[in-house]
User: Fold these one by one.
Assistant:
Number 1:
Amino acid sequence: MARIGVFICHCGENISATVDVAKVAEEAAKMPGVAYAMDYKYMCSDPGQTKIIEAIKEHKLTGIVVGACSPRMHEATFRKAAEKGGINPFLCEIANLREQVSWVHPRTEATTRKAIDIVRTIVNKVSKDTPLFPIKVPVTKTALVIGGGIAGIQAALDIANAGHQVIMVEKSPSIGGHMSQLSETFPTLDCSQCILTPRMVEVAQHPNITLHTFAEVESVSGFVGNFDVKVRLKARSVDMSKCTGCGTCWQKCPSKKIPDEFNAGLSYRTAIYSPFPQAVPNKPVIDRANCNYFQKGKCGICKKVCPAGAIDYEMEDEIIDIKVGAIVTATGFDIKHTDFFPEYGYGEFKDVIDGLQFERLASASGPTSGEIRRPSDGKIPEKIVFLACSGSRDKAKGIEYCSKICCMYTAKHAMLYKHKHHEGNAYVFYMDIRSAGKNYDEFVRRAIEEDDVHYIRGRVSRIYEKDGKLIVKGVDTLMNAEPVEIEADMVVLATAVVANPDAESVAQKMHISYDKHHFFAEAHPKLRPVETNTAGIMLAGACQTAKDIPDTVSQASAAASKIMGLFSSDEMTREPVVAVVNRCMPPLFTTCTGCLLCLEVCPYHAIEREEIKDRRTGEILKVAAKVNAGLCQGCGTCVAFCRNKSIDLQGFSNQQMLSEVVALLNKPF
Amino acid sequence: MIICSIQLIFFCIKRQLNRFNIEIVHESIETKPGNSLKSRLEESVGVIVSHCYQCGKCTAGCPLNEDMDIKPNQVLRMLQAELPGYEDKLLSSLSIWLCLACDTCYSRCPQEVKLSQVMDFLRQESVRQNKVNPKAKDILSFHKAFLETIEKNGKLNEVWLTLNYKLKTLNMIQDVQKAPSMFFKGKLNPIPSRIQHVKEMEKIFQRISENEGGDK
Amino acid sequence: MSEFEPKIVAFVCNWCTYAGADLAGTSRTQYASNVRIVRFPCTGRIDFMLLMKAFENGADGVIVSGCHPNDCHYTSGNFHARRRWIVFRSILDLIGFDTDRITFSWVSAAEGKKWANLVDEVTDKIKAKGPFTDLDKLDGVQLKELYDEAITK
Amino acid sequence: MKVGFYPGCSLEGSSKEYSKSLFAVSEKCGITLEEIKDWSCCGASAAHSLNHDLSIALPARTLALAEKQGLSEIVIPCAACYGRLAASQQAILNDKAILEKTEKYIDMAFTGNVQLLTVFEFLQKYIFPVADQYIVDKLNQKTACYYGCLLARPKDLTKLERPENPMEMEKVMEKAGATPIDWAFKTECCGAGFSMSRTDLVAKLSGRILEDAAERGADSIIVACPMCHSNLDLRRPEIKKQLKKDINIPVLFITQALGLSMGISAKELGLDKHFVPTGKAVSCIVKKEA
Amino acid sequence: MKLLQNKVAELFENGTINLMIGFKEALTKQPVPCFIEKASEIEQLIYTKDCKNNLSVYLHKPEVKQAGKIGILANIATLRALVQLTSENQFWDIEKTVLTVNDKEEVIVFSDMEEVEAYVQANFPEFSEEDLKLLDYLESLSREDRWKYWTEQFSACIKCYACRAVCPMCYCPQCTVECNQPQWIKTSAQTTGNLEWHIMRAMHLAGRCINCGECGRICPVGIPVHLLTVKMNQDLFKEFGTKSGFALKGDYALNSFKPDDKEGFIK
């Protein structure tokens, strides 16, 4: 006979404010199989846990139910306590009384009834629980880093320096990411490339890092410690082993009018190109969509001029299979472009540019060699208007969130402009200045106080072009909402930070969650900010949400350390929530019919054919299905699929699920 | 023709004297918590003023921003803050009458606040509480003349409207020079065109005014 | 007589809808207390037999909810579940079972609000429909009636 | 082909030429416009300024009549009327309580199954497919296509592809052989309903519009709203006073311009009814080369 | 008939089979199954259009399996069953020779299952018109009337499980109704339990039923149970294009999916 203990947590007042916790404990005590019930202010606290441990011993409990917050919060805590008390941790289950009861309902009897129902359900589940024992699986001590921006670079270097193998996959021809495009960085105004390029080179030369640029992840299968990843190495059309990076090919390439991604479309590049002079690896690729040879079938100049004979038009995409134990997702972000703003001209005014374009204009390696000139006619603008919150915090445009970095980089932009043109006028339209960060607010104040940037509080309604000027119609809400009209030479929109266009499909390949803006979801917003809900996959950088460089680097290092922890032992234990095919006495052996239709259902190919043989004669007595516990992830799809219930899922067994349903019902809600 | 016009003027004056009061009931409403201007607005129009975060984009784009005594974003600000005196100030402002309902504000509003509906509501409240700004009397008179005209005729006749409006404002000279040329271009039709079932029209007005009486 | 309070059982997956319901809690989004959640690892684990058992044991409505297509934590559990639901609905439809009492939905971990709305909507719908009594009327008398009928023939 | 038609008050009075030209163009293209019997005024800005229920009930009466008449689609050339009718229909269909209330007011059933067409939608759907065979002349001039507010806003009612810089009218003008100019005041407000009550403001707003069109070299301004037309055409003396300069660009209705390209006479299109002489626009026209 | 008997005699003679499952005449119009163990008994073997039984159901019986080499005379439904069962991995321990008589009354002895598959695919039967008519009628009813119809039907069920016994696809050594931990379905013959039993049966056979109609024919209280699975097969074909008993390499709707399966019903 089961002896179950029920422990109801008040969670301070979080639960007790709307649920009559004493009543719940009282009712629980009456439930069949319950030997002990109590309520306490903080079950998860040390004294709370001690109470559980003592109760287990004192009342000889065989299983416990904790009515508290979501099992996603403290299941592990309480299972550990149960273990300390001397019972199998899987005989401890959580009744979710906070997230799904007290926080979502008012203080009524119905709410308390719901709490009691949930406790009863879980008591019934526990009474059908069986002890389970963790499964050990080996760990492949190689990490995959997806994305070669500053986040990926930092994570890869940290893991590699700890002595583990790292494979880095970057989709563009060079690593470096958005940071390599920036001019100076706030709040120190040090040159972005100067601090980044040494890191890039280190990645390329690190003995523990294998770098695949111009490559993308095709698929991810397997599970923590044992992921199988397919990587597509896109055809570069250039043999990396022969190419010396001399540059003859791109100097001679006749297709010269392709908008240059690195310069945010402000200049042109050739069809065979290396994105920028400090690229790593600094070897070109052919952009086949824009190459005369591939599009029209004639040209072939690069092949003729290449002194190393490295050009290979026949090259094809190659898919490689790699095995890794953990993954860092550092796929970065995108920004909205000026065509996202109808009221600012649908991107049709050349001198209305976005922040990244301004970075390129201000960068010494940019198309104007660092002179700030407007794109339409190359004139140096006398008046620049910066619009913060362009698209951010704009529900109507579908982006409610703050992009976090714009306040700072707008201040930086205005400052850079003023440093280069003391006589020029810089105006910043803003709603709020969000400059929380070390030395950040001081930086903004410097722009206002020392560099004489005019900050105007108000949003701009419209921009139109007249006689080569951009008429900016704004408002000064600090001046009795006075309408403001500025005839500007150039307008810089601090456009919203958004997820990469392919973020959704990346997330789906990895089976990680993402939010409605397609930013990847962390496992817990506060306590597990670098892990995803899929064990073994970590997040770093702006693919999770808009981030500045210091935050990105911190998160990357955190992700790396999570992985180093994972790699610190040769084996890892997995939860024994796995499917099992039943066994019984001969001549039946198992009720499984051996139809093997479930083999197709399993997403992990964890089910295999098993021949049950006579030990002496070797004669096949029965063919049945068998679950490989090492591969099984415990989804239970096979369990619901099996016609005659021959497979069951440990921890979510048929008996448990059915008794939960029965316990819930048969009485008024 | 002349007789016709005289008849028309005569008729208008008569109507002006025993004016039928369309749906406009003057009354004063006490400001109680839960019955504030804001809560009534949110209830009847469904615009939530707290959505506005005062970026000022509405004012920046408003075609008449310079002429408004209270700027569009400030209208919302006053509704949000609900400080003593704001309500009176709002209802007796000129701005609410200057709003052209061009919807430029709403079409660019990042928080999707339907400001033109707020303005409609405030106008109706202003009339109801008899707080119309003196400078807006002409605009109000025009609106009233317009509605009276269609109540009686079902559709608009510009001569009819103009005369009615001029009688209300006693501004006889304005636009007089335009009339002859419009007339000869065939744009003015002194004989009031009417819909067939004028009675239906009156009934609609009547039912609405009865229903509103019942509501309060 | 107090108002009819429907009994609704929700069969949800652990990774999306259960997390979505948790999010509704963390964001303090209020919704009808008529729902009781049963947590499964995946929608693929939800046996159609359990839905029948829920009705048999007195549920007035059932919600089945999991990850959106392509978002399944286990890659394809929800796709298999979706096929099963299609087939299950068609058999119920043939038999004339009131399929309006079963609501299928996708609620992701980010959709706390959607979860709350879903529960409210289903609660209202079932309230309007009234208690589920189709099964209550079945047992007991028919066999005897049938026997009597057979005898008289 | 038959399409329902709601003229609205202005098209019977001060903007007769809009109606006249629309009929001329439709007739040319074999489209018959069937007027809603006993239609009444939409209430315009007066109704929604003073009485919310009235602003829904007045258009609803006309829409209910159209339903009774069995019209499935009606074209509403006046942008203001379109705005009121569409807003009313949307409000009723979105809220059952409003539907019930309104049906009581108008004492008629309302189903909302009449589809409302703006003048652009009408041209696009019925005139465009056949227009090419009737277009014989080229307008051969720079036109400033002016939308004003009510053709462009609110965006959920007007259904324009690019509400901040719409191109629907430009497409019509290109068809008619004109060169639409790129200008900044396409969707700025002209002062609309203040024509009579605050003529000073109308002069200011319409003045800006005319000024920009003139500075960018427009030969004509094309409109599709009677209010815009009367403010830009009729209020020229006040605008002159405001700007302290005379701008004599003629203002044509979109249907007039299209009619001209189809070889319909200026008189038939009502060009003689304008205050600003339209000769300048007509004189640019050349035969379309085959 | 002689032709068939000669052929089978030949098979006995050359040792290809040592048990023949076929049909013999009965008192009723419909022939009944017979088991022939020696060549001398061959004379009773017949095949007519009225041979409707699905003999493949006997292949699951241990007594039959013990015989070793089995010959089976199959109508088209039986052939489909053999194909489906092969795809479900059920014949790993059985050596069988399949015979059929085609439209031209020719006797065909299949040399392997691939030939059976090809024959089935070439002669794939339509749904019977009678069944379709009944289904159409049911569909024309209101939901409430359908519910009434079926619950009345099921109230008559006496849980004799004849439908299961006669079904070649119901070969589980232990059926879900026999599970008692947990007890999924009430064992007594009450309407709710009966309803659950039939819904479950339909679910388990959806996409696997080969439309032999045996279950409906055998039902002692005359419930048209086969309609449930016929309808399932019809819907599955409409929805996913799958056919049961059609291919050896399975084409089962419920262990596969397409990312764009319909989901209009999902909120």
Note: Chain C touches chain A through 53 residues (CB under 8 Å).
Number 2:
Amino acid sequence: MLNLEIIIFGALALITVVAAVMMIIARNAVHSALFLVVVMSSLAVFFLGLWAPFIAMVQVALYAGAIMVLFLFVIMLLGAERAGARLLLAWQAPLAIGLTVLVVLLGALLLLNTAPFEVVDLPAAEITEGTAEAIGQALYSVWLFPFEAVSILLLVAMIGAVVMTRQETRQEARDERKKKSL
Amino acid sequence: MSNTSFVALFPLFIGLSVVLFSLGVIGVLVRRNAIIIFMSVELMLNAANLAFIAFARSFNQIDGQVFVFFVMVVAAAEVAVGLALIVAIFRSKQSINVDDINQLKG
Amino acid sequence: MHEVSSEVPQVFQYAWLIIAFPFVGVLVNLFGGKNRSEKTIGWTAVFFATLAFAVSLVVVITLIGLPPEETKLNAGFDVPLFTFFSIGETTVEMGLHIDWLTGVMLMVVTGVGTLIHVYAIGYMHGDPRFQRFFVYFNLFLAMMLILVLANNYLMLFVGWEGVGLCSFLLIGFWFEKDANGNAAKKAMVANRIGDYGVMLAMFAMLIGLGTLQFAGVFEAAEHGGFEAWLLPAITLLLIVGVTGKSAQIPLYVWLPDAMAGPTPVSALIHAATMVTAGVYLIARSEPLFHAVSEVQALVGTLGAVTAVWAGLIAVAQFDIKKVLAYSTVSQLGFMVAAVGMGAVVAGVFHLMTHAFFKALLFLGAGSVIHGVEHGHHHVAHAKHDAHSGHGDDGGHDAKRDHPAETEFDPQDMRNMGGLRQRMRTTTIVYLIGSLALMGIVPFAGFWSKDEILYFASEHGAVILVLLLVGAVLTAFYMTRQLIMVFFGQPKTEAAAHAQESPRIMTVPLLVLAFFSTVAGFLNAPLLGLTPFTGWLEGPEAHHEFDLTRALILAGLATGLALLSVFIGYLIYRPKAQKAGVDDPLRKLGFVFTALNKKLGVDEFYGLLFVRPFIWLCNFLAWVIDWRFWHDWFHDRAIRDTFLKITDFLANPIDKLVIDGAVNGTGRLVAWASGGLRKLQTGFVRSYALLMLAGVVLVVAWFTLIVLQGR
Amino acid sequence: MSLQQFPLISIVLFFPLVGAVILFFVRRDNAELIKRFTLVWTIITFVVSLGFVIGFQSGQPGFQFYENRPWIPDLRIGYQVGLDGISLLLIILTTGLMPLAVLSSFKAITERLKEYYIFMLFLEVGMLGVFVSLDLFLFYVFWEVTLVPMYFLIGIWGGKRRVYAAVKFFLYTMAGSLLMLLAILYLGIHGGTFSLPELLANNGWLREAPEMLLFIFFGIAFAIKVPMWPFHSWLPDAHVEAPTAGSVILAGVLLKMGTYGFLRFNLPLFPNASREAAPVIAVLAIIGIIYGAIVSFAQTDVKKLVAYSSVSHLGFVMLGIFALNPQGIQGALLQMINHGISTGALFLLVGFVYERRHTREMGEFGGLWKILPIYGSIMLVVALSSMGLPGLNGFVGEFTILLGSWDAGRAGGSLGSYLYTAFAAIGVILAAVYILTMFQKMFMGETRHEENKRLIDLSQRELWVIVPLVIFIFIIGIYPQPFFGTMTASINQLLQNMASGAVALH
């Protein structure tokens, strides 16, 4: 049984990592986006296995669905599939990769040298499952204030996005010209 | 799928999270396409989410999941604003190459 | 001696109305006077002045009814009003003080003031700033009343400076002419110099004696217990103020220039009331002066010298008002000498009579000017029928109607002569005023001047002789003026066509003439009439009166005056008939020119004070403050030094870099600085990379700690 | 008293800030709305601040409306505010001048309205903060906060050499305040707290402190702000270049921050040093009085004249403060208010005529009184108040200051203070000279310039700006006791503390 778990995990993890790597190295931005969708979907499966069905659903709907569609939309809109012809900072790539590997190794070293983490498996009945209800309970009781704050943040972001991308209307352009002539 | 057993793989989940996060970092540092950089950031966020969920499961607490929820909301907001920024920049500079945007050069 | 009666009569509680009424007049005319007719404005002002007069009258009548020892000088009643300020140990309480000195001043100020208000309605007729004039006039009345009603030096000072302000405003009333503005400024500044002294005197009093209330100050001065220098200092500082306000040497120079104002102003402010404020101040502070006889002697001499000095200058003036102005300075010298010697009653008495006859003379002169201008206008009108379309509105803006003929000066006595035929009333009242001023029996001036001379004879020969000379000069220049203006033949067309002034101007003249005649009998010791002394000094006061000496003095003074009149008549009578004849006194040559040029005092002051001051101002402002401190020190020295230092620091470093490229040491610097500069690439990704490097360092640090901790 | 517990100070303090934030969201092309909003907002601030006057208990020397909240507790820095008799009138002056300054800018400011009014509101926050802060650190923060909006007010809406003036203003003040920051840090570290009341309560540690050095460090910052001679060089530049409202606020309130600083910090914290430095400062103040007056006389630019006259007037204030007795200090405090009113009004009036003729050279005017009778008359009243005519406000301040300076000699028993006073009082004469000369040059004489003949008298809006100030000129001049009454208790306590602090050290 353990093996089955490992196999499932291993397969999914492999898919995830490969997709992530592909996302980074893909020349075409559209491809990158599609690989990212793969990563996110497989992560959703992980979430499901970790007793978080609500988050898994949200992950699929929000990330794999909405956000990625937005990405694709912008890529298509700008025609930016192949941006970045000039390579200014060539030396940066190896350095970045090296540093990342270094930090991972250091982290590993750190973890291996700390006390091992005891994981106690609980019987199914005692596991708190992240159902919509449970999350809702938590959100509207303990986390009410952050929840509201985050909703305002969302609103602000929405307005900001609208303001930034808004085209100047003709009326305004005319006003601007008038002011300059004054 | 089993109810309980994934928890035994807890270290692996953390490891996976680390790998994905590192890939995100490399993506941010290596790619010049602003959109891809953005996607890499999303990847990093997702990696963190995975760690959160794994920890929530192992500690048997719902708070981790709630936090993931918040992270997602923030990510959504960030994407909205970020993409709007990219669009705005593209309008003025006809490019989304971050290396072209260096007005702050010292 | 200075105890304040506890029972204040009910009437005095309302004495503040005396001040309030003119203020109400100011407000009414200021805010309600726009677009009103001259009549409304003028009579409103007169109305409020009359109200003040009425209340004053009630106060004075009440004073008569009270026992004299309660109402004599500096006994009187205090009516507290409000606390002006109270800080630490120093408190100033605003309030009114009512005794006979106040009573006399009230009568003079409101009485003469009201009459001149009436006169001004006629005189100012047609002036474009008619409203403003009466606002100022009422304001002046209010300020003067504050001055005389105050029960402390600070409130007195408020009135003191207030009247100075009104004087400034009214001298500069026709401010279009630069000379008027200059005269106004000169008056205010000279007064300010005097006020400086009064202010310091107040500090000395408030700190040294603990209070500014008259009663308290005098009591403290009597009891002593302070440093010896305090009283001399206070009195001397007060004298500085007096020389400013009452136009004594050395600050008298503003008063003749002040004649630039309209004539009613000269009469009210610069003859009858404001300039006597200094005399009032010394009279009021009599207990202080009493204690320091040296200062008294000084003041007496100062006044006497001023009397002669100004009398001399008056002899050689041609401007009808300038003669009167110097005469005023001279007469103020008499008063100051009197109160300086301690003869408060005589000084105040002369103040009162002088107020009547000098106001009369000024108003008479105004009437003359008015008439001559009218005549001039008439002549000019006939000549230039075409271009002067104006009717005969007020004579004094004839100049403005005929800018081409500004050379005609309606105030120059050489343009007059023979006016007695055309201006009968004016001539008569002017004659009365002149006789009173000369000190001819039985007019008011005789009695008051005689009393001053009597006290001077008690005090010492110098002052007496000086004052006698002053009296002789007075008689002479008044004779000269009378003959030049009223007698002989008209010297110009204008004088020939002069016209008597309207009733509204002559009636106040007649009233004043009446008082100039009879006011002297209020204090005529030769006749045994001394109610005035009784009022001011109380019943117990009683001087040893030497009748023989008084008679000799009176005879001497009158005789000298008559002699001087006769001499004047001899000199001027034959020459006064023809036009274009110069002053016979010019034969004196250099002396006359010097006197005519006012002894060069203005030029002297200009050379000694004004020009150096202006030079100093310009030097400090432009050379020291601007070119040196602002431009050189800040902009050049500090800023450029800073720039040079940075330059100095930058260049050697640059050179180091170049040198280093040669000898290798600089390479490190170049590399480091280049590397550091490269960090500021503006590339976001580079920054992110640096961040990652930081993360690596932090994690490495942690790892190190953990590994070490094991 | 309920009003005392109500956090009125915080409300008044941050009310303009809220206004600035709201203004931020107003469309910039809606000029009328911006102007009216700012005006109404500042008026409301003023009305609310009148609560201080109503709730103020004048017999009490301590801080009232006191609030204390932790801010940076680790460094023992607190948000500690309160007011007493020293700051009360200055606060009212600030809130009261603000609507007038705003109203006066309605026509003068035509560009970047929104930023202008936002800066004005910011400035008000800073100024109020300076006057209410009881924590040294908080005080410093507000002190610097006032610099920024003023810098922009001069630098953006100023005259021809505005950038030069703004930079000079900024650098000059900044240089001084850095020294003050050092001294504040020293006090905070060695005294264990930044709170002024606490520092005063246990000032025993000051025994070891280099008191004179700290006094000088604080003193230079304040002296530059005052500005005391010879640190006055930034003032004419700043005043001449600043827009009218900027000058009004600068002269009316910002300069008072310096003198207020001396009163609030230097005297109580360093009593011995104050006593020792008093003669020196008095001499500097007297030089300032006479020098300012003399230099004013030679000016041809009327705004510069008024600016230099500030040097003279502030010299009086400094002299009063360092007389170190109730008369001098209360007189100085009242003179601060008076100067705010009179000089503020003078700058406003100069601004009015500048808006009409676009020049400030006195030679360009002459005979204005005939054409602008209302303007001339108001100018006369204000000018007279500035030269200290009795019955108007300037006199009361100058009189009590000189009285205090005269009194200062009684304790020492030397003739020195009498000489000081005699010299300082020369300033009163000189004030008459330069003010009257200015008045004569501008308003008397013939109207020589054709342009001047077409000038129109004050509009209703301008009257609304200037008349309140004129009314206060009269009120303070005739009945000053209520104003003195508010400060008596605080000043007495200050002097008592100084005396006892000095005794404790010897």
Note: Chain B has a mean pLDDT of 82.
